[in-house]
């Protein structure tokens, strides 16, 4: 074994700990500055590693943030499911509010949800994408079960559409709601642009309430669905 | 006037033509390769200009693509409005289908809709963002009028939410539906990932039908809305 092979051949536990430290550093930097500002060099500096050493654990900055997106699903899904199970009068509005509240209080996760298909999945290995997709698929199962308990009128295809709508809108609205400081000042100063100021949680609640209402409406509304 | 000032001081018409040529080149390249692949150098090469000359017309590649996003709104809004006015039996499903069909047939516009708040608005001047926002605001007016004619039960706040939902979902779903070639092969080869293959138009039609149904439902459903 050469010295450099020895250095790489850490125990699985040591490797796991190092990966966790890198992910923690990326999470902290992302929360401070927003994902788009954080480079591999920043993450290496925060963990006290050389960039070349960091590259033994993750191939690209996108792989690091894709792992954080998967971790975000694994943390959000049980939190949402628990919130759904606490609802005393389940209906479109209360279920919509559970989605909107749990997403709006996770700003960095909303940022990652929008970045993943645009920027993160494009610069990683096929294996990294497979692992990411399987992790988010598994995380959805808990939400399906909680939705089925609370809204039995919503079938699985409808539940899949509700989850897809909630995460796509949370990602897009979060980006619109958090412009850079100069643009935020522009929105405040020009009354013609007041419409551009967007509050994520109330808008998401309003839209998801309507969407879930439409999906669970009495059969009278069903003929309006596309064939 | 120095020679270099003379070179820049083209007639307004010549300047407009040069800008149009740059935008056309960027549009063609974006349609061929996807927005994310196109650099300023590519655009300069396609127009037969030096990159330094191109920078007299646009500050950044993001400014060019933000202009194309505004142009996309100006082309899509009247097309959608005309399609809405042709509907013989207006209802949630037919209106949803008009949104989904006109967006799904404009792939590059969907790409731009997702890129704008994430990547394009972040690397341009405040003036460029103001101009972009005012252009998309004006383009919405035509859609408001057509929606009001066809679905009088949908108020202006509801119409604003429907448009925001349609463009946010079209942008996000288009990104998910057009992965790189390696990831597309992964989705085809691994049956556990079959759910990741997404068809933009049917899913958008289904979700918008439910959303518009919920927003225009009889007052019985109104108590479900958040207070």
UniProtKB/TrEMBL annotation, chains A, B:
It comes from the Bacteria. Residues 39-58 bind DNA. Transmembrane segments: none annotated. Pfam families: TetR_C_34, TetR_N. Gene3D superfamilies: Tetracycline Repressor, domain 2. PANTHER family: HTH-TYPE TRANSCRIPTIONAL REGULATOR RUTR (PTHR30055), POSSIBLE TRANSCRIPTIONAL REGULATORY PROTEIN (PTHR30055:SF178). This is TetR family transcriptional regulator.
């Amino acid at each position: 074994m050469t010295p450099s092979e020895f250095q790489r051949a850490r125990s699985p536990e040591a490797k796991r700990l190092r990966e966790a430290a890198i992910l923690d550093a990326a999470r902290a930097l992302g929360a401070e500055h927003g994902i788009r500002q954080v480079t591999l060099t920043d993450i290496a500096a925060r963990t006290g590693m050389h960039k070349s050493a960091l590259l033994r654990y993750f191939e690209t900055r996108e792989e690091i943030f894709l792992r954080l997106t998967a971790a975000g699903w694994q943390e959000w899904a049980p939190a949402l499911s628990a919130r759904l199970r606490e609802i005393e009068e389940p209906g479109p509005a209360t279920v919509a509010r559970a989605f909107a509240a749990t997403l709006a209080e996770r700003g960095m996760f909303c940022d990652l949800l929008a970045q993943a298909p645009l920027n993160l999945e494009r610069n990683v290995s096929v294996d990294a994408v497979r692992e990411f997709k399987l992790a988010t698929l598994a995380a959805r199962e808990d939400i399906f079960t909680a939705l089925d308990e609370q809204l039995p009128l919503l079938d699985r295809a409808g539940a899949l559409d509700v989850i897809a709508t909630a995460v796509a809108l949370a990602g897009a609205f979060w980006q619109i709601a958090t412009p850079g400081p100069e643009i935020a000042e522009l929105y405040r100063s020009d009354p013609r642009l007041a419409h551009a100021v967007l509050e994520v949680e109330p808008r998401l609640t309003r839209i998801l309430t309507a969407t879930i209402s439409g999906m669970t409406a009495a059969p009278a509304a069903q003929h309006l669905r596309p064939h």
